[in-house]
Fold this sequence. Notes:
The complex is a heterotrimer. Chain A is mainly alpha-helical. Chain A contains 14 helices and 4 strands. Chain A is about 70% helix and about 5% strand. In chain A, the strands form 2 sheets. A two-stranded antiparallel ribbon of chain A has the order 1-4. Chain A has a two-stranded antiparallel ribbon with strand order 2-3. In chain A, a hairpin with a 2-residue loop joins β2 and β3. The relative contact order of chain A is 0.15. Chain B is built from 15 helices and 13 strands. Chain C is mainly α. Chain C is about 75% helix and about 5% strand. Chain C is built from 12 helices and 2 strands. The model of chain C has no long low-confidence stretch (mean pLDDT about 85). Chains in contact: A-B, A-C, B-C.
Amino acid sequence: xxxxxxxxFKTDYQSxxxxxxxxxxxxxxxxxxxxxxxxxxxxxxxxxxxxxLIPVLIYSLAALGLNILTGFAGQLxxxxxxxxxxxxxxxxxxxxxFPEINLIVAIALSGFFSATVxxxxxxxxxxxxxxxxxxxxxxxxxxxVWLFQKWAWLYNYSTSGAIQVPNIDMFGITIAGPNAxxxxxxxxxxxxxxxxxxxxxxxxxxxxxxxxxxxxDMDIAAELVGINLMKAKLLAxxxxxxxxxxxxxxxxxxxxxxxxxxxxxxxxxxxxxxxAIIGGLGSIMGNFLGAILIVAxxxxxxxxxxxxxxxxxxxxxxxLNVMIIGALIITFLILEPHGLARYWQVIREKLIIxxxxx
Amino acid sequence: xxxxxxxxxxxSAVAVAGIASxxxxxxDSITLSNLSYRTGPFAATGIPLMNGQRDYIMMLNDRxxxxxxxxxxxxxxxxxxxxxxxxxxxxxxKGESIVTQPWSTGIxxxxxxxxxxxxxxxxxxxxxxxxxxxGKTFQWAFNPPASYWDGASMILSNISxxxxxxxxxxxxxxxxxxxxxxxxxxPLFEQMAAKHGFTFLPIPVGLTEMQNQSAQWLQIRRERxxxxxxxxxxxxxxxxxxxxxxxxxxxxxxxxxxxSSLDGDLKLVGDKGKGYRAISWSLPNSEAPVMQDIKKxxxxxxxxxxxxxxxxxxxxxxxxxVMISMMLVEGVKAAQEHFDAKxxxxxxxxxxxxxxxxxxxxxxxxxxxxxxxPFSTSCSDxxxxxxxxxxQWNGSKFEQASDxxxxxxxxxxxxxxxxxAKYAEANAPWPVNEECKM
Amino acid sequence: xxxxxxxxxxxxxDMIAAPDFLLQVLWEGTVSGVLYALIALGFVLxxxxxxxxxxxxxxxxxxxxLTLVGLHxxxxxxxxxxxxxxxxxxxxxxxxxxxxxxxxVNQPDIILFMATIGITLFLIxxxxxxxxxxxxxxxxxxxxxxxxxxxxxxxxxxxxMEQKDIVAVGGAILxxxxxxxxxxKSKMGRAIRALGDDHQAALSVGISLSTIWVLVWFIAGxxxxxxxxxxxxxxxxxxxxxxxxxxxxxVLMLGGxxxxxxAIIGGLAIGILEKLFEIYWGQPxxxxxxxxxxxxxxxxxxxxxxxxxxxxEKIIERV
Lengths: 358, 438, 319
């Protein structure tokens, strides 16, 4: 009833492959964007911005980057955290060397650094596959984090070895640093995430996306039909690391405000991987659903005992939290290995034929 | 399992108490939150400290009904020593709590710039970073009673018997966690090495190598340093001490910072750790009146979370936790007195922490004389520089092994000033307290 | 030139100048190598029989060691605590098979991999809730493991070997030999290998998948316990031990995911080489702490020439 597709005719191939073949999808998206751009900012308090909304967006973006590599091109990577780090440190160096630079430009540029590094570490993928490749990307993970610690130039020789985000203005409004307001940062992150997501959707829908999918499904077959494996795989690493790097720069500059090398260690990589897999490999929307589950859920779980007036010691809550997250991951994998995005598809199909299922 | 049951009973008891007291919610209270870490690889060192902090406040509430008739509401937010969780906890607690106790140098670095905007004091006793002593620049951050640079300087002065030039030609290895915390004293050591002519050799221990330090100790064996100074934390302390025992490194040439003086770590090696020293600005004294009160009101009442089988009550760390809460509560008291208010807010607490005056008489009145050296803070000095004692492991517990040591103020103040200026410059525009004339 | 000298000449000159120290480095490397090999062995066994890349092996080490120590703290005599811990590990294996693996049969590799990370998280939370986060002393003496040390004086220097390390190496060798006999001679062992070779063929001749999986996870649990005792004796038992799983991954890359002998040789090679590199190249030239990545970079280099690891099975793909 709500999702009735009757009457929406497609007369040519092009309109059938449009971004929104069904009108209701476009309305839904408009509704979500309305929520994100208008309703949330009006209702959220600072804690919601900083502990829920901003991190969910940034993690979604990082997962989106990983998903392009793993979900679309089929190359498993465990080095996401380190690539985020490359983006963050590159952005830091750009901002401190050229203080006049516009932060958005710096973030966009820093993506290229992580893209280059990502491509270099993607070279082994031409020979190595599957879990071997996954462990090989761990080499990037450990080596880069070690480099962030040892290469003092990266953190401007500060004694603590950490990087601090200075106050950065754009058009007279402080958008990064301690003086920035949470709501400004939210809007900046939201805009960047929206733009990158839009681009990602179109890349993955187009020729390049289909090349990647064919590699994922069977790389030898793809090669036989004339796809240049090397070019396509390296491109996947490039695009993926670019997005991950941008996410890393946002992560430090618009959310954390300071970072030390260990921040980009392996737990971050796993976290992003969780989001991509729980959300659904090979899906763009899944990343957002996954991020909501993995990032927002622990924050909410922490508040549950308070709601019921129970005062369990905070460490017990944390332990239970970790257990619940672990159990949830297993449960979701068992119930729907294709992730939350697949759930949405099922629901959508049900809605289309509702209330008259065959 | 026992722990689980105890936690369950405790929590239900507290819940019942919560319901009972909700009728009297109108009663005045002050919330003091703590970004604790009872989980993760650093939990071993965190737990006794948090227990000490918690139990002192529980004792005050039970014995005196809080401070000046105001109940103290001690709340923990678990970070697991992860900076990510730390920031989340900071955001979650800053609304109600009038203080933030970040507990890791990493988290401190993250919340430091925000504290200026949110106007909430950071209390980081004995940690954070040393330049925080400059109260004019770091208006909202406090690291009493001594900073890491103080600690480094005091260790050097102790091993050289007060004459640093006596270290000329010696080699000092610096075994440290590869983390902002471990890197903190390096600038001071380097400066001292250049000035006094000793060789300084930093040896980093990665987070993943904490439990397997054989490479680091092989390096120590090869380099044969005259002293090994350790900036260790969590599982790293135990790893280093067992390796030192194994490689037969002379224990009396092995000295740790105050966070490397956990009884539990030394108990792993027992007698073989005899002679190991650690600098400390707190001395355990289980017979002190304050500890006896805690025993009576909290431990014997079954309200404490300490592990009595291990003798945690007597540990250096547990009693240091008590001292940390003492500083906080004294800050609250000073603010109450100055502003003539019962319930104080964060800005008033800042004044209180800036005007701490912990002298002998006050320590005597608090029943903790000799457990911490006297010190006082001011608007320009947020550390207090109490000095510290050397503790030595005698095979079963830590004992006092030196008189009160003092740091080389001249060298440290210059370095701190420089560090603070650099920080302010990198984070411009950074507000500086112009009113402070000291 | 200076640089070349310090890379190519000086380290070797150092080695020859202090042969006793070199021996010590090699011994330390061997001990860590044996422990890496043990963890890698746990991975390999599970991967061989079920194609599951079991990330939870690291936390199983911690869990086994904690259970052992925890039981002893609650008054169970040490020698009884060991079999009881084995019972716990069996229950764990059974539970994992029932709750996690059975519903996930035939899912893609990555899903199973993720599930084992889920298990890891669950066990971390569960373990900390029950045992607490403190660093605990391994009950070395109670298990009658000698704690003294031998000192040798070759080449006028001295080399120190701890007895518990020798016991660890000896124990590991025994375990590996027992395992090889079990895999090659016993009926169950051959069933495990058959499953590894061809799932469907094995099923069709009547090998029970679920029994074998429980068995394999239990064996991995036994290995975890041995590793936990050996490693815990060195630096105490706490959740910080969990990271040793990361040390075993490059061993798998180097040795091949399916090869038992690859895990052992790879483990030893990485243990020794990373120690040599750290001492003679890493510390003087690179600021130290290279052990975090050296093994990975080494394995990556080898993999570029042999994509299936030194002893792994060559993957033959059909289109």
